Amino acid sequence: MLAFQGHQILQKHPVLTHYSPPVSSISTNPSSLSTRPSNNQSIQSLCLKNNLKQALQLLYKEPNPTQHTYELLILSCSRQNSLSAAGTVHRRLIHDGFDQDPFLATKLIDMYSQLDSVERARKVFDRIRRRTVFVWNAIFRALSLKGNGEEVLNLYRKMNAIGARSDRFTYTYVLKACVAGEGLSWGLSKGREIHAQILRHGYESHVHVMTTLVDMYARFGCVDDACFVFNEMPERSVVSWSAMIACYVKNGMSLEALELFREMMGESDDLLPNSVTMVSVIQACSALAALEQGQLIHAYVLRKGLDSVLPVTSALVTMYARCGELELGRRVFDQMDRRDVVAWNSMISSYGSHGFGRKAIDLFNEMQCESHA
């Protein structure tokens, strides 16, 4: 649902005698007219089979890699989580004159983001001269995932200044950037500015954009604004409903969250809550110590097969503990195939707060043993 030296990325691969610089940055070079058999299909096939090592070996023998070959090599580096291979592919790509290809620049930024090398992603962005909306979106996403909200919004300001167009993904990323910088006083005001731009450019009918807007207002505690956006949406997805329910829960309005959930359930037979929805609803029951409602929700979770989802079962453990039903909580806890720290902490603290110190200590020791296993 994120170190490198700038010179390294520009370092050329040792020049092979059969290399010939391309005239175009798309996929073919003049020397592609030679009778030398192409290794491109073989490289692509190896990438699709996750055999990156052999693909790189063939790359050294191929004088004219195509755009598609580089695309698959980049994706393969991401899948293999190999930063060293990524550097190799990138250097060769630059050598072959593809460094100004916006499509490949987008793929490179995404790759470096996945490899947790945002500095290299920045280098790719800085180097590319023709920045399509896809290139802008890729760097926005990479920086947002690293929590660099201020940098995203500064770049977005430059994007607007040069008249580059935004799309629905742009608005999603910059809204998330406002939240990434929520500790900054201007985060909310910038979010309101972007909201105005969304309306001005006619994106109020895009479910994903408006759902992100609901979430942005929720993170800043602006429940009325989130509610207004939600109510004005011409259509709502399960993600939209879940975002509004979570907004109520996060801001201490658990009764409103449960009421909205009931409204959601009556909205349409096709609108089925997912695990994210159920976590928020269970948290609302927990905050209200609403045992009866929580048990009904638990029964629904079992019917829909959501009891295998870790955050859902962890929330159930917490809910039963808050309601004082330690045995029911322990039963859910014992049936979990795997447990996260939330489930362990909830069960341990519930024993401690209800006067079962010995059980709390025993369970803590069990957690320690399991973590070292």
Automatic annotation (TrEMBL):
Domain of life from the UniProt record: Eukaryota
Pfam family, one: PPR
Gene Ontology terms for molecular function: RNA binding
Biased composition (Low complexity): 20-34
Keywords for this protein: Repeat, Transit peptide
GO biological process: RNA modification
InterPro entries assigned: PPR_At4g14850-like_plant, PPR_rpt, TPR-like_helical_dom_sf
Protein transport as UniProt keyword: no
Record region (Disordered): 20-40
PPR repeats: 132-166, 237-267, 340-373
PANTHER family, per database record: PENTATRICOPEPTIDE REPEAT-CONTAINING PROTEIN (PTHR47926), PENTATRICOPEPTIDE REPEAT-CONTAINING PROTEIN CHLOROPLASTIC (PTHR47926:SF482)
Protein's UniProt name: Pentacotripeptide-repeat region of PRORP domain-containing protein
Organism expressing this protein natively: Daucus carota subsp. sativus
